[in-house]
Amino acid sequence: MAWLLKAPPAQFGHRQGEPIRPRTAHPAEVLRSHGSSMWLYLMFVLIASGGLTMGRIDAPIAKDLKIERSR
């Protein structure tokens, strides 16, 4: 699919020799912005909490199914 990509116009480039400074935002600013950053942050929190929850409950499930590993 990379062959479908086109080079951006010159106006989107950055000037030679000019340092690139990424913009950082405070979490409160992200929540106030109502933009895509807020949704990305929300999805990160939901997925991370789901992974932590699954990691916490897999030991009792393995014990019930008798597939646990002894250390």
Describe this structure in words.
The protein is mainly alpha-helical and 71 residues long. It is 51% helix and 0% strand. The chain has two helices and no strands. It is elongated.
Descriptors:
single chain, mainly alpha
Oligomeric form: single chain
- Cα-to-Cα separation, first versus last residue: 46 Å
Uncertain residue segments: none
Strand content: under 5%
Largest sheet: none
Number of helices: 2
- Mean pLDDT equals 79
> Topology as H/E string?
HH
Question: Could you estimate the helical fraction of the residues in percent?
Answer: 40-55%
Radius of gyration: 22 Å
Outline: elongated
How many runs of DSSP E, i.e. beta strands? 0
Classification by helices and strands: mainly alpha
Q: Can you give me a brief rundown of this structure?
A:
With about 70 residues, the chain is mostly helical.
List the helices and strands and how they pair.
Layout (H helix, E strand, L loop, with lengths): L26 H7 L2 H29 L7
